[in-house]
Amino acid sequence: MGFSMQGTSLGNGIKRAMEGLAHHLFLLFAISVVLIIIAVTVVGIHPMVIVTALVIQMNAHELGTTNHVLAVLLMLGWSISSVLSPVNPLNMLVSRLSGVTTELRRGSGTTEFTQPL
User: Fold this and answer.
1) Rounded to whole angstroms, how far apart are CA atoms 52 and 54?
2) CA-derived radius of gyration, the chain
């Protein structure tokens, strides 16, 4: 997904927005990257997909940081989103073993998402 977005208007827009945030206030950039990863993961998309798409669009030197800081930021977002995601396989296993489930009703059917408490 990351390489397919590279060079497109969407990919360039994401890149410009991230660079603008990073140059304005790096803390705001870091918080927004973590929140983007969490939001997309809670919807049901694996963190690997969004992190790959983001990392292809980011250049640490252009953002005014180092590769290590960018890697730690992405790992932080990935780890937090893995804990919070209702469709994470580990969360699904733990909730099935503990018997704790939540339901999301949509239309006439019921979709069951599991989230350990």
Assistant:
1) 5
2) 17
Amino acid at position 36, single letter: I
* pTM reported for the whole predicted model: 0.70
Distance CA 84, CA 109 (A): 24
The answer to whether 80 and 39 are in contact (CB under 8 A) is no
Distance CA 19, CA 13 (A): 10
Query: Measured between alpha carbons, how far is 96 from 115 in angstroms, rounded to an integer?
Result: 9
- Residue 37 CA from chain centroid, whole number: 2
Residue 110 Cα distances to 62, 93, 97, angstroms:
46, 19, 21
Residue found by looking up tokens 């990257």 in the block: 33
pLDDT per position as a tens digit, 3-39: 566 667 877 777 788 888 888 888 998 999 999 999 9
Distance CA 21, CA 5 (A): 20
Q: Is 47 exposed, middle or buried (0-12, 13-18, 19+ CB in 10 A)?
A: buried
